[in-house]
Amino acid sequence: KRSKPMRETVVTPRVREIMDRRVISITEDEDIRVAAKKLLKGETNHLPVVDASGLLVGIVTTYDVSKAVVSDGRFRRVKDIMTRNVIRTTPDEPVDIAAQKLEQNNISALPVVDAGNRVVGILSAIDLGKLLPGRRWR
Amino acid sequence: KRSKPMRETVVTPRVREIMDRRVISITEDEDIRVAAKKLLKGETNHLPVVDASGLLVGIVTTYDVSKAVVSDGRFRRVKDIMTRNVIRTTPDEPVDIAAQKLEQNNISALPVVDAGNRVVGILSAIDLGKLLPGRRWR
Ligand SMILES: C[S@@+](CC[C@H](N)C(=O)[O-])C[C@H]1O[C@@H](n2cnc3c(N)ncnc32)[C@H](O)[C@@H]1O
Questions:
Q1: Residue ranges of the CBS domain (chains A, B) (predicted)?
Q2: N or C: which end of chain B has fewer CB atoms below 10 A?
């Protein structure tokens, strides 16, 4: 009878354990300057864009606001610069899957949505540092 | 005779192993719109600012460019919006120390400088994902 190989159980942390629950969001008809102010005030690079019922419809970052600087006034509202195809995660997703989404898309944060597409948090690449070997988190 | 406890050697990865060596930089007298263009073209949020000899004197990010959007034309050059006190790392620094710098200062990238303060790379928080348990890198 062959001996069983030693089983190394790696408990993968979930997004909910390291995500930030305080999310500042914006709507798509707001002025770009309002978005810029929120980004500067919240000291964040990412504003989820939500519709009237709070559902995720886009994301706008300081990167997108930079487009307004080179557009010479053509872009005025959040909807002119936001990204509509939002790469997102859920509270239950394993963190390594979320990390892959960040890397593969060269983005630094993922809105965290519940089953109804409501924004419940944001996972930023900086939060991944909490999981480095030898570090404690929370 | 007591048995020795099993010794778990954790080899801490160094910044050089996960940093990005392709760095786009700018000088402080450039127009903010040039910085915005470089950021958008490089698909990055961070431009190290270097002097005429290529030494690090500041950093300008899409976050800083957003300040120009709300300043109504008061800010025009990179030096008006850049951060002078740059939090940086070196190729030999252990990654967990660099990760701490990111978290504690709520920033998403660190310029990597050699002993002569020359920029040799950039370490972004996104790169930390390469080191998550169970993942392979390079
Ligand atoms: C390509 S990234 C490059 C800048 C930098 N690497 C970063 O992490 O933000 C910038 C673009 O990604 C978009 N973006 C950021 N997070 C996103 C997400 N979770 N899903 C889709 N697009 C996103 C922004 O709207 C912006 O247009």
A1: 19-78, 82-138
A2: N
